Amino acid sequence: MDAQELRALQAPLKDKYKDTPDAAVITLKAKGELDDSHIACKVETGRALVTAGLHPATGGPGTFACSGDMLLEALVACAGVTLKAVATALGMELRGGTVSAEGDLDFRGTLGVSKEAPVGFRAIRLRFDLDTDEPQERIDTLTKLTERYCVVFQTLASPPPLSLDITTKG
Question: What angle do CA 57, 58, 63 make, to 5 degrees?
């Protein structure tokens, strides 16, 4: 897909969202089911069922997906798609590339060993290794726009209000 095809594809959507802002607001959903025989949760991804469980650093067997890994995978997926869309819109020449994310966790927080240790990632690093001859000025623009328009990156950088509710049957 080139820049012109992308613009043609997105133009009617942009017009619709300008005219009817509420049409641009969509509620995405995720659903899982608690596993009855393991400390795990089966998550529907839309393409497959993924069972997430305890990381080995918290006593897990290492046979289930780790939700921390899944968070980083979501960041990689979103950032990769965003970068490709931005590069396409800018008419950039990319021959290929890779996206990687890594994050540092201190499991003392998760296990309640230390109240000083945070629960969650201390830091996350996102990296692109691109095969391109584009000048640094265009790469800088690509970086800025990818960061700006990547939904997962922006959600992690500026978290929205988050709530948790538990209901019971019986």
Answer: 75
DSSP secondary structure code for residue 162 in this structure: -
56-92: pLDDT as tens digits: 999 999 999 999 999 999 999 999 999 999 999 999 9
Nearest CA-CA partner of 94 in 130, 129, 128:
130
Q: Which two tokens stand for residue 101?
A: 């994310």
**pTM for the full predicted model:** 0.92
Beta-bridge mates of residue 130 = 97
- Chain position carrying tokens 């019971």: 168
Largest CA distance in the chain: 64
Map residue 95 onto helix, strand or coil: coil
Torsion angle, alpha carbons of 36, 45, 30, 153, to 10: 130
Contact 75, 151 (CB under 8 A): no
Two structure tokens written together for 13: 């959507």
